[in-house]
Design goal:
heterodimer; A: Nucleotidyltransferase, domain 5; 5 strands; 28% helix; B: alpha/beta; two-stranded antiparallel ribbon
Chain lengths: 119, 285
């Protein structure tokens, strides 16, 4: 399974970036091997509109099955739903820790966005 | 002639100035309330309004049976209003700016347009004053296309008075563009001065003749006057901070109706504007 995690840095010890669309980086992690790919999200950080939608398209293209992040707005959530990507909101801590917690079943899958647009 | 009444800060008295100026002029005046997010000039002018005319903006509809999922539409849309995920197309009509790019670029001709309602236009009349305003639909974020619809009712050769929205963003620029004169209204406080500066810089970029009205004169400090002098921005009128004026406004009355002495002040204001832009008579433009 491929897990997408929004991150402030480029390795597994970095803190989870609470923003989804405008996260500094998004790591795509293989849950079995812990191998990961770093996506630089600068283009979306600077986007004046639709950052969440575009970030959702990006992780969908990378084949992510689930997203761990802090806050996810309504349009990003709708796009992730359409892509069949499960969303976990309110993830706090290091990337490594939230991936472990997810694998241990400590998170529940979000049924809706947890913030308004342009939050 | 088009006189647009604007301000940086909200609540400085734009509508008070615009409505009283319109009502003071004897000839036919066309009044256009372009503050479509919260139009309020009708509360003072009390026009008899006709039927609501709904205004739409085109947004894309995708026929997925014809779509090849090539993503060209998503790539051309800088507003991310249309996006492709594998074998799914998502549209976000509320983010669309109606450029038509997705429709043009689609090699399969799979995209057509439908309308998103922006709001309504209402037209009416109060004595010699023709009145038009727009009301943005609740939840709609894009005011400029509706403002342009209101502005399509400008009558060439007549005096047109436009009540602009506050601020300095797209709706304000839309309302100001094409004006012959921008009448800026401020209050003499640090907050009023701060936003006045932003408004003046905006009007300068548009290259429009401008003048200043200081409302609630007597409160605050001398900062606005000092700034106006440095800028060479003429102070065309001062409206004092007086209970009688505030009472009239609170009751939805025009100042020139409640306090008829003010009519001559507004006529003098008009004469000064006319002189500034060299406008001589009705039909001169």
């Amino acid at each position: 399974m491929k897990i997408a995690v929004t991150s402030r840095g480029t390795d597994l010890d970095a803190a989870v970036d609470p923003r989804f669309g405008r996260a500094a980086y998004i790591l795509i992690i293989d849950s079995d091997t812990r191998a990961f790919e770093v996506l630089d999200n600068q283009e979306n950080v600077d986007a004046f509109q639709g950052a969440g939608i575009q970030a959702a398209v990006m992780i969908s293209d990378k084949g992510a099955d689930v997203l761990l992040t802090g806050y996810c707005g309504p349009k990003a959530f709708e796009t992730l739903q359409a892509a069949g990507i499960k969303v976990v909101n309110d993830a706090v801590g290091t990337v490594d820790a939230v991936v472990r917690d997810f694998k241990d079943g400590k998170f529940s899958i979000a049924q809706s966005a947890n913030v308004e647009g342009h939050w | 002639m088009i006189i647009t009444v604007a301000s940086g800060k909200g609540g400085t008295g734009k509508t008070t100035v615009a409505t009283n100026l319109a009502f003071s002029l004897a000839d036919h005046v066309q009044f256009l309330d372009c503050d479509v997010e919260e139009p309020n000039a009708h509360l003072f002018l009390k026009p008899a309004l006709g039927e609501k005319q709904r205004v739409f903006t085109p947004v894309p509809v995708v026929d997925e049976t014809a779509c090849s999922y090539c993503r060209k539409c998503a790539e051309i849309c800088r507003f991310r209003a249309i996006t492709v995920l594998g074998k799914k197309v998502l549209t976000f009509p509320e983010m669309c700016h109606s450029c038509g790019g997705c429709m043009e670029i689609c090699p399969e001709r799979a995209i057509t347009e439908t309308g998103r309602e922006l709001g309504v236009i209402e037209e009416g009349r109060r004595d010699d004053i023709g009145f038009v305003h727009g009301r943005l639909r609740v939840g709609e974020a894009m005011a400029p296309p509706l403002i342009r619809k209101v502005l399509s009712h400008v009558l060439p050769g007549k005096v047109n008075i436009i009540d602009a929205p506050p601020g300095t963003s797209c709706p304000v620029i839309t309302a100001m563009r094409g004006a012959d004169f921008v009448l800026l209204v401020t209050e003499p406080t640090p907050f009023g001065l701060h936003d006045l500066k932003l408004a003046v810089e905006t009007v300068k970029i548009l290259g429009l003749p401008r003048g200043l009205i200081i409302n609630r004169a007597g409160i605050g400090d001398d900062g606005v006057k000092e700034y106006a002098e440095e800028e060479g921005l003429p102070v065309l009128m001062e409206i004092p901070f007086e209970r009688s004026i505030a009472e009239a406004c609170s009751r939805g009355r025009l100042v020139v109706e409640a306090l008829p002495g003010w009519k001559e002040e507004f006529l003098e204001l008009f004469r000064r504007i006319r002189k500034t832009i060299g406008w001589k008579e009705v039909g001169a433009r």
